[in-house]
Write a structure and sequence with these properties.
Elements: H1 2-27, E1 35-41, H2 46-50, H3 52-60, E2 63-69, E3 85-87, H4 91-101, E4 109-114, E5 116-121, H5 122-130, E6 134-138, E7 141-144, H6 146-154, H7 186-199, H8 208-223, H9 233-240, E8 247-251, H10 252-260, E9 268-273, E10 275-276, E11 279-285, H11 293-299, H12 301-309, E12 313-314, H13 318-325, E13 340-341, H14 347-358
Parallel strand pairs: 1-2, 1-3, 7-9, 10-13
Antiparallel strand pairs: 3-11, 4-11, 4-12, 5-8, 5-9, 6-7
Helix pairs in contact: 7-8, 7-14, 8-14
């Protein structure tokens, strides 16, 4: 009897294994990916590449993509031979990466972009607007007036010196915007590009004289912050959790993604600087394995749709972005109405400004 029972149990076990083999693939279809590529990316794109829908869409096109994060301006210092592609947050560090990797002239692609914005606590935005440093166009949306704001920064104004701030005891100390390290991070560097443009009589800083004119203000904007972050991810998460500084520079994509993923923005007010630099996320293929991936990210309808869901603006995709974010129009400015978009200094001059800003 025991022997018969053992045989029956064995047959049941074999049957169970065969069931799993037969039906597991229906719940988890085999991947169609044929290429595994490694890339170094700006942290603002981490959620995009981790998104299960993105993973599947890439697999359907033959790719398994593994990523590591780095400050965009620090990518050229990495062991780039270990990667198949680099994906910094703008075209300027992309040039440095291509040169460092010995692939200068490689077919770069700019699949999507995102303007820089300043997120503010509601009380901070109210005080700025009441003192002519910002203009609100709704409960959760407005414009940061760069000229007046930079003038206040140059004068070392404190929150306490702004009328109306006394009602908000948490608004204390020197008035500043929390940025990332401009020497290693794209958002911090491009904030200096926009600020130096305003400080240089609305012209791109193009020579040593321009650096000398604007460097003292750039120094004030950065030195007052203390320790500098390497990416926008940590300060953004701190803000959303209710901590952090009252004014933080982030990418619009981070805000749009939060809203599109139906997460609670709290009392966030989104201020678009009236002078800004758009950040065209630039894909640099470093090996043949990844050569077509950038084009795929830019042109594949499904991947464009998923990029929008993570808050990015596809190239020539204002209608796509506007339609997707329509339910959240109270926070966003899809057409960038009233925003002056300016060029960036050369890499050499921008890095000189960043070094002077850090002291």
């Amino acid at each position: 009897m025991r022997r018969i029972l053992g045989i029956v149990l064995g047959l049941l076990l074999i049957g169970g294994v065969l069931y799993v083999v037969a039906f597991q693939g229906q719940d988890h279809p085999e991947t169609t990916a044929t290429k595994t590529v490694r890339g170094v990316i700006g942290s603002e794109k981490s959620e995009f590449f981790r998104d299960p829908d993105v993973v599947k869409a890439l697999a359907d096109k033959g790719y398994t993509v593994k990523t590591e994060t780095s400050g965009s301006w620090a990518m050229d210092q990495l062991a780039l031979k270990e990667f198949d592609f680099a994906f910094p947050s703008s075209s300027e560090p992309a040039k440095e990466v291509a040169a460092a990797a010995g692939v200068k002239g490689a077919q770069e692609t700019k699949p999507f972009y995102s303007p820089l914005v300043v997120i503010a606590r509601a009380n901070a935005a109210e005080v700025l607007a009441d003192n002519g440093l910002a203009r609100t166009t709704g409960k959760n949306l407005g414009t940061l007036l760069m000229g007046p704001f930079l003038k206040a920064a140059a004068e070392d104004r404190t929150w306490q010196q702004l009328p109306g701030s006394s009602a908000h005891t948490e608004l204390t100390g020197t008035l500043f915007i929390k940025t990332t390290d401009p020497a290693t991070s794209n958002s911090g560097a491009l904030f200096l590009a926009a600020a130096s443009n305003v400080a240089n009589a609305n012209s791109v800083v193009a020579d040593d004289a321009g650096i000398e004119r604007t460097a003292p203000l750039m120094r004030k904007l950065i030195s007052v912050q203390g320790a500098l972050e390497q990416s926008t991810d940590d300060p953004f998460r701190a803000f959303i959790s209710g901590s952090g500084e009252p004014l933080i520079l982030v990418y619009e994509s981070q805000v749009a993604s939060l809203l599109l993923q139906h997460q609670n923005p709290g009392d966030m007010v989104v201020l678009y600087p009236d002078t800004t630099v758009n950040t065209a996320h630039t894909f640099v293929p470093l090996t043949e394995q990844a050569k077509e991936l950038g084009t795929l990210l830019a042109t594949d309808p499904r991947l464009r749709e998923l990029a929008v869901q993570r808050g990015f603006r596809p190239q020539d995709g204002v209608p796509e972005f506007t339609a997707a974010t329509a339910p959240h129009a109270g926070y966003l400015n899809p057409g960038l109405t009233g925003i002056r978009q300016v060029g960036t200094p050369t890499v050499k001059i921008l890095m000189a400004l960043a070094q002077r800003a850090r002291g």
